[in-house]
Amino acid sequence: FAPLAGEDFRLALAGNRIRATGTLIHPASGARVALVTIRHDLASGAGDAVLDVPELRFAQGGLQPEMLTPLTVGVVALVDGALAGQGRIEWSASGTRSTGTFATADLDLAAPFGPVEGLSTRIEFTDLLGLTSAPGQEAQIRVVHTGIDVFDGMVRYQLRPNYHVAVETARWPLAGGTLTLEPTVLDFSQETVKYLTFRIDGLDAARFIQQMEFSNIAATGTFDGTIPMQFTQGGGRVVNGTLVARQDGGTLSYIGEVSDENLGAYGRLTFDALKSMRYSRMRITLDGSLDGEFLTRIDMDGIARNPQGTRQPQGGISGMVVGRVLNQLSRIPFHFNIRIAGPFRSLVATGRSFSDPSDLIRASLPGLLESRTPPDNPIQPQESEPVP
I want to staple 51 with a disulfide (CB 3.0 to 4.6 A). Which of 87, 308, 312, 333 is the partner? Predict the structure, then answer.
């Protein structure tokens, strides 16, 4: 931990007992970190120190955790919120013992996997100096933005010696199903790759697409899968994640605009089939970086449910013949092998912007322009004469 300065320090000696009080402040910012009370018995060599933290507030552009300890570098950043609690250190001839309870409510921060909003937790330290806790600590998280937002999460964890964190379980509701993090131990003592495996159970495709705000795709079906992920200080990536539709299958409709230029008969047939498809099997494979190139593969078997909707090419008798052929072909079972490549977060943002471009506008315009309101007094009062 970085050294702190003392303020209002008072020391009293009465008999064999020493009592000291003061305030610990961060020297550069002047932020008050803790109120300290120290007692020591010179005869027995026993004593204790109580550290009260009524409210230690972090803010962007102000005090940040890395200004107090380098242990948070690469773990959290841009922290906005307050921490409160009390720590107690006791010593005697038999040794030293430290405990503490600290809590935060509705804390926002940035993590390697994305921004976190509304983190609330209470930590019971069994060894405050060693930063270890009892098992079964719980944290509630209002939302995590990883490109696919997840809400109302619950994480059960334990802080272990040598800066290791054991995630006992973590669970989020997701589009009618659940997203569960399998138990794992994360090493924060050094810069290492953090391995996290998420399990998806019972995801409803229709609700997921609605949550993602994709206006040009409609789908039904229930999916299960596994999403292995790796995180470093540079960000996160998915490694061979899979989502598989349950045996009942479902439907898929792509209603986006498609240009006919250089599309060809089979290209038109493919997109016509995707306008209304009943699939019996679908497997989605995910690979790539959350902040870089991302690859999605969709392997699907299905039958077009609306061959009458196939577009008719123009062009006399030959066009009629081709149209009839396309109508017949549209009744044949399809096997799709679709490959989508691109930056993950950009792909998600682009899909949303078709129906709601506000995210793109907010990213392009200064917030001042968006929040600006008309002045109370217009330049030309209503009673004035018109000005050419």
Answer: 87
Secondary structure of 66-81 in the HEC alphabet? HHCCHHHCCCCEEEEE
Distances (CA, A) of 294 to 63, 300, 340: 35, 20, 8
Tokens of 372: 């600006």
Lowest mean pLDDT among 35-44, 66-75, 218-227, 303-312: 303-312
Global pTM value: 0.72
- pLDDT confidence band for 318 (50 / 70 / 90): low
Residue 191 is encoded by which pair of tokens? 């810069």
Which residue type does 170 have?
A: A
Contact (CB, 8 A) for 18 and 39 = yes
For the chain, the maximum distance between any two Cα atoms, rounded to a whole number of angstroms, is 114
pLDDT single digits (tens) 183-237: 999 888 888 888 889 999 999 988 888 776 666 778 889 999 999 988 877 777 8
**Residue 68, phi then psi, degrees to nearest 5:** -105, -35
Distance CA 388, CA 369 (A): 28
In sequence order, the β-bridge partners of residue 299 are 283, 337
Burial 223-256 (b: 16+ CB within 10 A, else e): bebebbbebeeeebbbeebbbbbeeebbbbebee
Is there a contact between 123 and 159 (Cβ–Cβ < 8 Å)? yes
Q: Are strands 235-245 and 250-254 parallel, antiparallel or unpaired?
A: unpaired
Determine the straight-line distance between the first and last CA of the chain, rounded to whole angstroms.
68
CA dist 82 to 12, 26, 59, 118, Å?
A: 32, 15, 9, 12
Name residue, tokens 């994480």.
155
Q: Where are the alpha helices (DSSP H) in the chain?
A: 205-212, 264-274, 316-329, 344-353, 358-364, 367-371
The structure tokens listed for 75 are: 């773990």
